[in-house]
Specification:
Blueprint: H1 2-29, H2 32-45, H3 55-63, H4 73-101, H5 104-129, H6 132-155, H7 162-188, H8 198-232, H9 235-268, H10 272-289, H11 293-303, H12 311-337, H13 341-366, H14 370-390, H15 398-415, H16 420-438, H17 440-451
C-alpha cells in the first residue's frame, strides 16, 4: 500500500502543480464573465459520469482487488468495447438534444462527455487493479495538455472568448483518449480480441447502477452550493465561488491518493484494527493539508486582488476537506469494498437533503455568498457525526474528539489573522502541540509508516 500511495502522490504532485497554474492563470487574465461561462461548462462536465448509467462503476466492482495480469483478456476487451459503443450511443442522443436546444455549452458537454467518460473508464480500471502508474498518466495528461492550450490562447491569441477555452477542453480530452487507448492496446492488446456484447452491457449496468447513483449524488452534493449561487446570485458571485472551489481542488489532490489506494487495500485486507489506524492517520492528514488555505490567501491578496471576495469562501471550504478526507477515504471506500452500494446511495440522498436544507436556511438569514460555504462545512461535520454513530467499531476515542475540536478552532482563529504567513505559522504550531498531546501514538505510527 505504501508503494501505491507513493505512485499516486507522484502523479498528484504533477497534477497539483499544473492545476495551481490553471487555477490562477484563467482568473488572472480573463474577464469575470468569461471565467463564469467556462466554469459553467466545468460544472456540467462533473455530471458526465451519469451518462455511463453505472457501466464503468460495474467494471470497477468487477475487477476491484485483482491484479491486471489475472484478468481474462477477452473478457476485459469485451467489457471495454461494449462500454465504448454504449457510451457513444448515449452521448449521440445527448448531442441531438443539445443541437435542438441550440446551446453551445451543452453541445460541447455532449461531445466532451464521451471523451471524459472513456478517460474515466481507464481511471476506474487502473484504480481497481492497483495500476497506479498508469492511473497517474490518465490523471495528468489532459491537465498538462489543457494548460498549454489555455496558455497559447491567453498569451498568443489574447482570447477572452469562453467558447475557445471550452473547445480546448474538448480537444484535450480527445487527444488523451487516443493516446491512452494506444498505450493500453500496446500493453495488453485490448483492441485485438473480444467483441461488443449486449449481455456485458446489461450485466455491468445492473452491477454498477446503484454505485453510480451514489457517485452521481455525490457529484450533485459537492456542487450543490454552486447551483444555489447560479440560481440566486449574479455571474460575478458564481465566478468568485467557482474560483474558490477550483482552489479547494488543490486540497483534493492530496486526499485523492488516500481515497484511491484504500479501496484496493480494503478489498484485500479487511481488519477493524487496520482500518481504525488508517482512519486516525487520515484524520491527521486532513487537518494538515488544509494549511493550503494560508498560502492561497497570500497569493490572492498579493496577486489577484480582484478575487479578494473569495478569501472568506475559501476558509470554510478548505475546513470541510479535513472531514471529507476521513469520510471519502475510509467510510465510502468501505461501502464499496463491502458492495453496499444501496446503503451508500441512501446515505448520499440523506446528506443531500441535509445540504439543501442548510443552504436554504443559511442563505435565508444572511443573503451572503459565504453562507453556502458554511453550509458545505456544516454538512461535512454532520456527515462525520453520522459515520461515528453508525459504526461503533470504528469510532474515534475521546482524545481524538478533543483534537478535532481544538484543531478546528485553531484553524479558524489562525485563518482570521490578516497576515496569511502569521496565520500559517500559528496553525502549524497549534497542530503540532495538539497532536503531540492528544494523538502521540497516531503521530508515531505515521512517522514509522513513512520512514521505516
Amino acid at each position: 500500500m505504501k508503494k501505491s500511495l507513493l505512485h499516486i502522490f507522484a502523479a498528484n504532485i504533477i497534477y497539483l502543480l499544473i492545476n495551481i497554474f490553471n487555477s490562477f492563470l484563467l482568473p488572472k487574465f480573463l474577464s469575470v464573465d468569461t471565467y463564469a461561462i467556462i466554469k459553467t461548462y466545468t460544472l456540467y462536465v462533473g455530471y458526465a459520469g451519469f451518462l455511463s448509467l453505472g457501466y464503468a462503476d460495474g467494471m470497477y466492482l468487477k475487477y476491484g482487488g485483482k491484479d491486471i495480469n489475472e484478468l481474462d483478456l477477452v473478457d476485459l476487451s469485451t467489457n471495454y468495447k461494449s462500454y465504448t459503443l454504449f457510451e457513444l450511443i448515449v452521448c449521440f442522443i445527448c448531442l441531438i438534444i443539445a443541437l435542438m436546444l441550440n446551446d453551445f455549452v451543452l453541445i460541447c458537454f455532449s461531445i466532451g462527455g464521451f471523451f471524459i467518460n472513456i478517460i474515466g473508464y481507464y481511471k476506474n480500471l487502473y484504480q481497481a487493479v492497483g495500476e497506479f502508474k498508469l492511473y497517474g498518466k490518465s490523471l495528468n495528461y489532459q491537465t498538462i495538455l489543457l494548460f498549454f492550450m489555455s496558455f497559447i490562447l491567453i498569451f498568443c491569441f489574447q482570447s477572452d472568448n469562453p467558447k475557445n477555452y471550452i473547445i480546448v477542453q474538448v480537444l484535450s480530452a480527445l487527444i488523451v483518449v487516443i493516446y491512452l487507448t494506444l498505450i493500453l492496446n500496446k500493453n495488453i492488446h485490448i483492441l485485438g480480441v473480444g467483441k461488443v456484447s449486449l449481455k456485458e452491457i446489461v450485466k455491468n449496468i445492473s452491477m454498477g447502477f446503484t454505485l453510480m447513483l451514489g457517485n452521481f449524488s455525490s457529484s450533485i452534493f459537492t456542487s450543490l452550493d454552486r447551483w444555489f449561487i447560479k440560481a440566486l446570485m449574479t455571474n460575478k458571485f458564481f465566478a468568485y465561488y467557482s474560483f474558490a472551489v477550483s482552489l479547494e481542488n488543490i486540497v483534493d489532490v492530496f486526499i485523492t491518493p488516500i481515497t484511491i489506494s484504500l479501496y484496493n487495500s480494503f478489498c484485500k485486507n479487511y481488519s477493524i484494527q487496520h482500518i481504525l489506524k488508517i482512519k486516525k492517520m487520515t484524520l491527521l492528514w486532513g487537518f494538515l493539508i488544509i494549511t493550503a488555505a494560508f498560502p492561497v490567501k497570500f497569493i490572492i491578496i498579493n496577486f489577484l486582488p480582484q478575487y479578494s471576495n473569495a478569501i472568506s469562501i475559501i476558509l470554510p471550504l478548505f475546513a470541510a476537506q479535513a472531514f471529507y478526507a476521513v469520510i471519502k477515504g475510509v467510510h465510502i471506500n468501505l461501502y464499496k469494498a463491502e458492495h453496499k452500494q444501496k446503503k451508500y446511495f441512501k446515505i448520499m440522498i440523506f446528506m443531500m437533503i441535509v445540504a439543501v436544507i442548510l443552504n436554504c436556511v443559511l442563505y435565508f438569514f444572511s443573503k451572503q455568498v459565504e453562507s453556502f460555504a458554511y453550509a458545505t462545512l456544516i454538512t461535512a461535520i454532520v456527515w462525520q457525526i453520522y459515520c461515528e454513530i453508525e459504526n461503533s467499531k470504528l469510532r474515534f476515542n475521546n482524545n481524538e474528539y478533543v483534537s478535532i475540536i481544538l484543531l478546528f478552532i485553531s484553524y479558524f482563529v489562525a485563518g482570521n489573522i490578516t497576515n496569511a504567513i502569521m496565520g500559517l505559522l500559528l496553525y502549524l504550531l497549534s497542530f503540532l502541540i495538539i497532536v503531540i498531546i492528544f494523538m502521540r501514538d497516531t503521530l508515531q505510527y505515521c512517522l514509522n509508516s513513512i520512514f521505516l
